[in-house]
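Structure ticket #2291
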Amino acid sequence: MKKMTIEKFIVKVKEQLSQVEQNQKPLLLIGSNPTSNLVVLPEREYNSMNETLHLLSNQANAMRLMQSIAQ
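Resolution: structure written out below.
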C-alpha cells in the first residue's frame, strides 16, 4: 500500500485520487499521530470489504462459508 503524509496529499489531492482510481489500490495517509491516519480506497474495494464483513458477521453463515471453502 502506498503511503504519504496528509500534508503531501492535500497539496496533490487531485493527482493522488486519480492514482487511487486508476490503480484500484488503497492509499495510507499518515497523520501527525497513529490515531489520525486515514485510508483512501476505491469504492469497489470498500464494497467488497463490507460484503465480506456482512457475510462473516453471522456465525452460522461464516461456518457455511468455511465448509464451502474446505470442499
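Closing remark: The longest helix spans residues 43-57.
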